């Protein structure tokens, strides 16, 4: 058993991590001695029953340790664990929120009422007994992330997974019941012998999942984004729960044959999200757009702006609607909301989701690399001529890169007065935009030289073996019957590597264009300087699955 006083490791690594966790002490903050801080904590503790609420101990750091015994009702918020084992540990009502777990195992640990909100789990395994499912009951994992994790031999009951992201995570021999999964994402996840028969999957996202011997719920499959679309491609040993027979299961083809009945039912009940999802799965774009439009209007009428956001996310994730259609939906939302008499609390609720809805409908494309530039200029609000020159140069830069979608916002009262969002078709165009924006607006040649370096160092790597590798992988897939999903995972990773190499090969073509792009950007920068316009640039990116340079993801001039 480890408590607050002995949950520590005397290593240089631990000391360095603690230093990071303590944070910085500069920026001219007042300085207090240890005795002053201790007295303050003691005074505050008089007013609460849980004395640990005002503990001055730094967050726990566990490195390569085994944790056993009873840690219930303890506060371990914002802790750090790596290469650890929690073995049959009682963690009931424990406070783990904001913690990070890496290469760690939770073996038969009781987590009843445990607070694991906003945690980061990387290569973490939650495991129970081989012969019987170990119970995880009433644990809260809201807003946490799971990467390369495993849930094995578990009965997961009444747990909270709202706004959780599961990436490359395996659920094996698990039963999941009465858990909240709204706005949760399953990306490249694997379900083996998993029972989700009565689980509510409304507004849950499924992308690139694999499943075998898994039971899906009858009612809420149409209300989960992406699941209905993927059902037909899953193996034949998966079933849907039913009350229509003694076996309590029907095949996926049998379930899909009922979609016409689902369609009519949801139409009559005015359940437009599920109705739109059915239309999307069938490629009926026109009907799905009308259903989404009807759903948006109905949610505004009842002032349910949380569900309104889900409709916008459905549009964003589907990637089947035109820019005009998405803009039209956004304009309709603005108009319909303005026609409603909102109370102050209702307007507050709308504002909570307004920003993300605008981003998804106007500036977002789920499947394409997207750049967000923050352009700080010396242009004053009354300098109209400079604004015209600035916007003209930006338009010319984007036109030279032939980007499919972009938008710009002017915020005169902000330090960063100009916000530029650019959606690109692929990594090559993504690189072009970076070269032109930084070269033209800020005179920075970082990305042009960086891409040249990539090309020089990868020419020997990019070869004609792509098709050979694909053929080998395809042959391997045909030969595999046992442990199919693990091999499928390997297949996907290797295919991603091949796509990466193809992206690099495309970048080679840029080599011939970089010189010309440099000349263009120099001309644009000259025009800006002649007009007395100075610009600093920084950017962030999203939807970029592979980035050869870290600077491509985020860079601050």
Can you describe what's shown?
By secondary structure, the protein is an alpha/beta fold. The chain has three domains: 12-194, Pectate Lyase C-like (3 Solenoid); 262-363; 370-556, no CATH class. The protein is built from 16 helices and 25 strands. The strands form four sheets. Strands 2, 4, 6, 8, 9, 11, 13, 15 and 17 form a nine-stranded parallel beta sheet that branches. Strand 19 and strand 20 (249-251) form a beta hairpin. The chain is globular. The relative contact order is 0.05.
Topology of this structure?
Blueprint: H1 12-22, H2 34-45, E1 61-63, E2 66-67, E3 80-82, E4 85-87, E5 100-102, E6 105-107, E7 120-122, E8 125-127, E9 134-137, E10 145-147, E11 150-157, E12 165-167, E13 170-177, E14 185-187, E15 190-192, E16 205-207, E17 210-212, E18 215-216, H3 227-231, E19 239-241, E20 249-251, H4 252-256, H5 259-269, H6 272-281, H7 285-301, H8 305-318, H9 323-338, H10 344-363, E21 370-377, H11 384-401, E22 405-410, E23 418-423, H12 427-442, H13 446-458, H14 466-479, H15 484-530, E24 535-542, H16 550-553, E25 554-556
Parallel strand pairs: 1-3, 2-4, 3-5, 4-6, 5-7, 6-8, 7-10, 8-11, 9-11, 10-12, 11-13, 12-14, 13-15, 14-16, 15-17, 18-19
Antiparallel strand pairs: 19-20, 21-23, 21-24, 22-23, 24-25
